[in-house]
Amino acid sequence: MKRIGLVLFTLLMSATIVFAQSGSVTLRWAYWGSESRIKRSQQAIDLFMAANPGIAVNPEISGGTGDHFNKVDTQIAGGSGPDIVQMGGNISDYVKRGVLLPLDKYVGSVLNTSVIDPSAIESGTIDGHLYGVSTGVTMPALVYNKSLLQRVGAPLPKVSMTYPEFRAYLVSIKSRLPAGVYPMQDIGALSSNSTPFGYWTRYNGTPLYNAETNMTAVTSAAAQKYLELFKDYRDNGLVPPADIASGFAETNADTSMIIAGKAAIGFIWTNQLNGYQAATTDELGLIEFPGAAATKALWQAPSQFYTVNKYSKNPELAVKFINFLVNSPEAAKVLGNDRGASASSTARAAGSTNVNDQKVLEYLNSAGPHSSKETTHLPNDTEFNSTLFLIYQRVAFGQISPATGGQQIYDLITRLIKK
Amino acid sequence: MNRKARKKAIRENLSSYAFLVPWLLGFFIFTLYPMIYSLYLSFTDFNMLQPPKWIGLRNYFVMFVGNDQFPRDERFLNSLFVTFRFVFISVPLKLVFALAVAMLMNQRLRLIPFYRTLYYIPTLLGGSVAIAVLWRRLFAGDGVLNAILSGVFNVNNPPAWISNPKYALYTLILLSVWQFGSPMIIFLAGLKQIPQEYYEAASVDGAGKTRQFFAITLPSLSPIIFFNLIMQMISAFQSFTQAYIVSGGQGGPLDSTMFYSLYLYLKGFAFSEMGYASAMAWVLLVIIAALTALAFKGSGSLVSYGSGE
Q1: Model's pTM, two decimal places?
Q2: CB-CB neighbors (< 8 A) of A389 in chain B
Q3: pLDDT tens sequence across B188-214
Q4: Residue B255 sits at the chain A interface (C-beta within 8 Å)
Q5: Do A191 and B248 touch (CB under 8 A)?
Q6: Which of B100, B47, B93 is nearest to B271 (CA)?
Q7: How would residue A379 be classed by pLDDT, with cut points 50, 70 and 90?
Q8: How far is CA A159 from the centre of its chain?
Q9: The listed CATH number (3.40.50.970, 1.10.3720.10, 1.10.1740.10, 1.10.10.10) that belongs to domain B74-299
Q10: Complex ipTM, two decimals?
């Protein structure tokens, strides 16, 4: 009798375990971001889990893109990749390596693409297949510290300026700023410097990369001009000397020169405004890169993509979660513009009352007409960033001339295209 | 040996092997196999997401020779240079410092155990992220050091130590020297081993403190100095954390803190060239092994393993 009782008990226990497991699935969602994004994302996860009992979502968060991709690469190589992976401009590198799941068969059933802007769908479509769902659009912008400028009695910048106007403006505020505070951060010396450089090559009419011809329009002379532009700013104290500038990695708000109060103007992506604003009590504002109005050199970019790991065990649920994040009004309200201004009409209809989100929308409205189609990212984007950073620093520290630097940048680009 | 005894011996052997199995499994699966695999990878082009492609010696060729099609990797040579400089400056400094503190700690004073603990703490903290961040703040352009320099000593425009390529490596050397705790403890144990009679005899013969140090302390400690030298050298070659955190993972400014292991990490994980990174790991192994062998060879006349007690 005793033995039968024991057997029954064991059976009961194992049944509970089996049923408990079959009833609950855990999705792993890997993304990078700062404090404010983590909070917003967790709220969205809570809403999803409340609406979908039996599905748990575990976020796996990194501080920046570097750490994120190192971790994800290693996990995927080891066969334990996350289900949902946040991707950036390097999505095509991952499609090429065949680790992302084509989402075409979920379109219409699990994923509602009919409410998403066609351009956003197009940006996530590579070789005819939909691999990534855009988290929203974002634009490069210059951010300025409004409170700082007001405190020192300096005029506020106009939203649209030409390069000569911009330089004159920097000169005009320089004398008013206290010692040790510079008119602008050296935005070429950032670890994500391929964006300011990319903007400038578009402004100059020599875009970085053409995917169809697999060629670059950048010449060593064009790259040299870019290095000379900032050398002029540096020599005139409009941006800090190299050793000061390289003390701020500017990978996020925590390492930002703007947030540290040492520069009046810097570079961010519009979707970063929230995170930056959360890190300071000063009020921040957005202006366009110089010369955008005449050249339409700015661009709207998918801020990030939600992608699904090809080896995910629950691809359908992963897509369901993505659909929730992108299209549902509930999620839109808590996520705001943190991953870009939503490309989904149902999400946009939900609106956001956040003041920073309003500022970003205002900027997108004014800068939108000053933009054109995004340049495809150079292959091996991470290595481009890292090495461009090094070459730029060589020039900034006076180790090599802008002419030599221009040649090195050109050699780098051609090497990465061939690699 | 009769049958019974032999059976017994076999059984005993078997049972000892059975006890060894967990360790053997660990050794084969987690040490030997990965090592052999990484040796294989070092001859391939491997981006972690697609199967490795065999390219023979090209990874090694790019490191040291290079041609037009596969230019030599200047950043590799630079990282090697940076690492050598770091090792050859920081290790001797750290040993001298550790020995000096150990001799202070070897006195009969009240509260000595407390001081020993206190001086060991940097070693426990040194590898941590918090200290690396603290270091950034200490040596930044507007950091604590410069506040003192300009405020107290009236130095005009002191450099931003940590973001200036001329000085950045030295701030890391300082950080490494500051973590003198573990060689200090080993030196302390060595100092306690030296028989007190030697010193008594020497002072009877009229030898002063300095003479005693060079004639008794140093020779008696020589095996321990040598041991510390080897251990510290090996770990210095592999330093990673400080440079990674202090330079924000970039080895900057201007690659001046691009340690070998940091570059290996960047190559493998950020640039997705795992084959090249594996080749770098093997080159590092050969360098460390060669230097250790060299040290052993050179140590013959300098290290005395005397009879002691």
Answers
A1: 0.79
A2: 250, 252
A3: 999 988 888 888 888 888 888 888 888
A4: yes
A5: yes
A6: B47
A7: confident
A8: 22
A9: 1.10.3720.10
A10: 0.76
